[in-house]
C-alpha cells in the first residue's frame, strides 16, 4: 500500500466568522496541525459561501469547524445564530460535516500571541481573524 493511499488528503477547515471578516484555517492532511489560510472580507451571504466553497474544493475539505461565540457562562453570543445558519448553509452546499466549536476567548488569545510576536497594531488587525481560526481549528483537532 502506498503512503498516498494510506493517508488520503482529507482536511478540516476552521472558520472564525465575524461581521466584517472570516478568518480561515486548514488542517494538514493527517488532521494534526492547523495553519492559517487568510481572511475573507465579507460581502454578502452568497458571495461568502461561494468563496468558502472554492477553498473547500481546493483543499479537499471533508469537515468544517465553525467557531460559535459564547458568553463566559456558556450562553450563545449575539452572533451565534447567524453563524450557525451560515455554517448550516455551507454544510448543505458542500455536503460536508459542520462542527460548531466554542470560540470563547480565541480572539483575545490570538491578540496575545500576536503581541508576543511583536507585530505592529496594524499588522495584528490584518491577521488576528486568521490566527483565531487556527486556534479554533487546533482546539478541535487536539480534542479528537
Question: How would you describe the overall organization of this protein?
Answer:
This protein has 144 residues and is an alpha/beta fold. It has one domain: Nucleotidyltransferase, domain 5 (2-Layer Sandwich), CATH 3.30.420. Helices cover 47% and strands 25% of the residues. It is built from 5 helices and 5 strands. It has a 5-stranded mixed sheet, with helices on both faces. Helix 2 (45-58) packs across helix 3 (80-94) and helix 4 crosses helix 5. The longest helix has 23 residues, at 121-143.
Task: Give descriptors for this structure.
144 residues, Nucleotidyltransferase, domain 5, 5 strands, disordered N terminus
Record the SSE blueprint.
Blueprint (H helix, E strand, L loop, with lengths): L2 H4 L4 E7 L3 E7 L6 E8 L3 H14 L2 E8 L11 H15 L2 E6 L3 H11 L4 H23 L1
Parallel strand pairs: 1-4, 4-5
Antiparallel strand pairs: 1-2, 2-3
Helix pairs in contact: 2-3, 4-5
Tell me the overall shape. Answer: globular
Tell me the count of domains. 1
Low-confidence stretches: 1-7
* End-to-end separation: 26 Å
Q: Tell me the CATH superfamily.
A: YqgF/RNase H-like domain
Q: Would you identify the CATH architecture?
A: 2-Layer Sandwich
Main structural class:
alpha/beta
- What is the succession of H and E elements? HEEEHEHEHH
Count of alpha/pi helices = 5
Share of residues in helices: 40-55%
Question: What's this, in brief?
Answer:
By secondary structure, this protein is α/β, with parallel strands linked by helices. Helices cover 47% and strands 25% of the residues.
